[in-house]
Automatic annotation (TrEMBL):
Protein name, entry field: MFS transporter
Transmembrane parts of this sequence: 12-32, 52-73, 80-99, 105-126, 138-156, 168-185, 197-218, 230-248, 269-290, 302-323, 330-349, 355-373, 402-421, 441-460
The entry's keywords: Membrane, Transmembrane, Transmembrane helix, Transport
Record Pfam families: MFS_1
Membrane topology: Multi-pass membrane protein
Domain Major facilitator superfamily (MFS) profile: 14-461
SUPFAM superfamilies given in the database record: MFS general substrate transporter
Organism: Oenococcus oeni (Leuconostoc oenos)
Length: 470
């Protein structure tokens, strides 16, 4: 393992460049949430349609991330970075000048492919260049960028949408992307140990069908409830999932090396997924709740998340350093406990929520999230062979991105579903009832995540005892 003295300035700037590229992609993703009411009016589309700017983005990010385990074993990091920046710039121009919803969506998909390449590459560089005794600190920095962006996005989008135009959201980041390009092109030098592998196109196709199928199933639920269209979509997706599992078992080609998924890694992966589902779900739900039920403007709806965002940004690197000193047990249990408490408060007080209450409860949730998010992945890496770090980075980041997509889709579906149950229900009332269900779902997910985190610590203790007895 490399010594800490070998973390030179070029390595730090490489991490910064790819981290900023990932940050910008996620920032734009959530900055669009507060513009949905505006876009629905300007482009004459429904909430179930406009939310594809987020869920479609996250869906393609997830699919692209599935390819990075292969790409990072075959292509130098610098080439991956340059391509990611190029398609992000192209997508930003398309979005800024989009004459209709379709062009806007296409531009967002370009940007999603960029983020899908950038985020796993960020963690891959950290795993390859940072020593284990500093891993928590640097993963904390990466987690800060990834978790800060979703919460800052509504504030950023709300200010620009309220005072200028949603198009300015994209115009501002274009010059920043060129700065990122300059920093990365001058400093990224990590060479890939090229392996003789064949890409699993069939596996990627089946995986994409599964991910799209789950999203489509939730869309059918939000439009038609539990009728035959929802049932058929769910059944079809489960059939494709079965086909994929059989194919992967017998195929000689694999998108990932699933041998890394040992019990402890599986539990950490679920925790990682849950944390991001709650994080992105709330970043979508709270601005919608504030605008539709509390009748705030898009600026205030975005600003609600700002204090929690800043607290999270300050917490993540400190949490990483704490993990480096004391290990995973206390940071992760405290993290999940705070999330359970915050989600419980949002659920119990749904009918009486105010701007200030939401802001306070969200502070608790963000503190919990940032105590655990980066550390969860850091701890899982202890149980993964160095040669398989690309697989871990790809798999964990794919999971957290899809968690965001599913989280957004579920939050949206619960609100949209109210108009099916109750005829002539107002948008405000649908948001209240759907929001209450959403907060309850997040609370249950948080309890499950805490329970499995505690169980994981039991497995780690048992594993350590087994090793010491050998």
């Amino acid at each position: 393992m490399k010594s800490t003295e070998e973390i030179n300035i070029r390595t730090k700037l490489s991490i910064l460049a790819i981290g900023l590229l990932s940050f910008l992609g996620i920032l734009i993703e959530t900055s669009m949430n507060v513009t949905f009411p505006t876009l629905m009016q300007q482009m004459n589309v429904s909430l179930s349609t406009v939310q594809w700017l987020t869920t479609g983005y996250l869906l393609l990010v997830t699919i692209v991330m599935a390819t990075t385990a292969y790409l990072l074993k075959r292509i130098n990091v610098k080439k991956v970075f340059l391509f990611a920046v190029a398609i992000n710039i192209a997508g930003s121009f398309l979005c800024a000048m989009a004459p209709d919803f379709l062009i806007l969506l296409i531009g967002r998909l370009f940007q999603s492919a960029s983020t899908g390449l950038a985020t796993p590459t960020l963690f891959y560089i950290i795993f390859r260049t940072i020593p284990m005794q500093k891993l928590g600190q640097y993963n904390g920095f990466a987690a800060m960028l990834i978790s800060l962006a979703p919460a800052l996005g509504p504030t950023y989008g709300g200010i620009l949408n309220n005072y200028f135009s949603w198009r300015i959201i994209f115009w501002i980041i274009i010059p920043i992307l060129f700065i990122v390009l300059w920093i990365g092109s001058r400093n990224i030098s990590l060479e890939t140990k090229k392996e003789d592998l064949s890409f699993d196109f069939i596996g990627l196709f089946l995986l994409a069908l599964i991910l799209i199928g789950l999203e489509f199933t939730l869309t059918q639920f939000s439009k038609y409830g539990l009728d035959y269209r929802f049932q058929f979509s769910l059944f079809s997706t489960l059939v494709i999932l079965f086909v994929y599992l059989v194919y992967d078992h017998f195929s000689s080609r694999h998108l990932f090396d699933f041998s890394i998924l040992k019990p402890i890694v599986n539990l950490r992966l679920f925790n990682y997924f849950s944390l991001q589902a709650i994080n992105i779900g709330l970043s979508f739900l709270i601005p919608i709740f504030a605008e539709n039920f509390l009748k705030t403007n898009s600026l205030l709806a975005g600003l609600i998340l700002l204090p929690g965002s800043l607290l999270g940004a300050a917490t993540a690197p400190i949490a990483g350093s704490w993990y480096d000193k004391v290990g995973a047990k206390f940071p992760l249990i405290l993290s999940n406990s705070l999330i359970v408490f915050g989600a419980f408060l949002l659920w119990i007080f749904t009918d009486n929520l105010t701007i200030w209450l939401i802001m306070f409860f969200y502070l608790i949730l963000r503190l919990g999230f940032n105590l655990g998010f980066g550390n969860t992945m850091s701890d899982a890496s202890k149980y993964v062979d160095n040669k398989k770090r690309a697989d871990q980075s790809s798999l964990f980041n794919m999971a957290q991105q899809y968690a965001g997509s599913i989280g957004t889709a579920v939050m949206s579906a619960m609100i949209a579903f109210q108009s099916i149950i109750f005829s002539n229900i107002s948008s405000s009332k649908a948001t209240l009832i759907g929001g209450r269900l959403d907060f309850a779902i997040l609370f249950i997910l948080a309890i499950l995540s805490l329970s499995l985190t505690i169980f994981c610590q039991h497995l780690i203790k048992k594993n350590n005892q087994s090793i010491s007895n050998q």
